[in-house]
């Protein structure tokens, strides 16, 4: 509503005001470009991300934004890796027969994260070459700088 509370602001004005404000104050992004506020929806993305990274439960943030499903919310939120790890480690890991998993949760998290970045699990270690890159070493894994192992595999 306008300052007299009798009419809504014109949509054009809602889009122009923040951009004009940014131009006058010289507000710039991390790439030193003038911030473009013509996409006001960006504020919602930032707020959703901030709330989730601060530990506010997903269902609370979902309700705050009026989203019908968590998928809608997660589409707009860009949570931090630290948030992912914190939430993963917060819960006990249980096997199919209801026993607590013997693997250390931190190790399990590391394995799952590594699995996202590699498609080369070897009998005696891991190839850390990004999946989109082709290997030029053939079978010379043990001398490759992308090969990783630990004491349990030696």
Automatic annotation (TrEMBL):
Record-given protein name: Tyrosine-type recombinase/integrase
InterPro entries per record: DNA_brk_join_enz, Integrase-like_cat_sf, Integrase_catalytic
Metal-binding is among the record's keywords: no
Domain named Tyr recombinase: residues: 17-75
GO BP term, example: DNA integration
Any one GO MF annotation of this record: DNA binding
Taxonomic lineage of the native organism: Bacteria, Bacillati, Actinomycetota, Actinomycetes, Kitasatosporales
Key words of the record: DNA recombination
């Amino acid at each position: 509503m306008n300052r007299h509370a009798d009419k809504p602001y014109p949509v054009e004005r809602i889009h122009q005001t923040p951009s004009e404000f940014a131009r006058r104050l010289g507000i710039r992004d991390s790439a030193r470009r003038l911030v473009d506020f013509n996409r006001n929806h960006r504020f919602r993305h930032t707020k959703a991300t901030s709330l989730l990274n601060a530990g506010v439960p997903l269902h609370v943030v979902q309700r705050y934004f009026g989203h019908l499903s968590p998928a809608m919310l997660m589409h707009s939120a860009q949570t931090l890796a630290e948030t992912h790890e914190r939430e993963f480690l917060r819960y006990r890991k249980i096997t199919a027969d209801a026993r607590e998993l013997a693997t250390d949760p931190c190790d399990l998290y590391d394995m799952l994260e590594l699995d996202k970045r590699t498609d080369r699990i070897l009998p005696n270690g891991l190839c850390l070459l990004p999946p989109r890159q082709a290997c030029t070493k053939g079978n010379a894994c043990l001398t490759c700088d992308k090969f990783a192992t630990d004491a349990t595999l030696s």
